[in-house]
Known about the structure:
single chain, mainly alpha, 4 helices
Amino acid sequence: MTRAQQETIDFVDECLRVLPDVVGDKVAKTCEGLVNVDVSDCGIPAWFDVPVVDIVKSYAEITDEVTSGFLDDYSFVKQQEELLEALKIGQSYEIETIDAMEAFKTGMMDIWEALIQYLLLRDRAELFYLEFDEEL
C-alpha cells in the first residue's frame, strides 16, 4: 500500500469518526458500513472509479431488503392483532398505522441521507488522494 493510499484511508476513517455528530448515529453507521465494504473490496484508488449508478443500485438493494423486512414485520403484527381481536382477547397495545408509516418514512430518509454522505465522502476522499499523491 502506498503512502497516499494509507493517508487517504486514515482521512476516510477520520471523516467517518465525526460523521455521527453531523448526521446522527443511524445514518453514520449505514454510511460507514457501506464505505468500509467498498473500500475493502475495491481498495484506494479503485473505489473512486466505481460508477455512481452501481453505488445507487447497491443502496436500492439495501432499501428493498430493509423495506421488505419492515413490511413483513408490520404485516405479521397486524395479523396477530386481528387474530387476538377475533378471539376476543384484549390487547394492551396496538400498532398505530400512522406511527408505523412515520417510522418507515424516517428509515427511508435515513437511507437516502446515508447515500448522500457516502457520495460526498467518496468525492472528498478522491480529492484528498489526488492532492496527497501530487505532493509526493
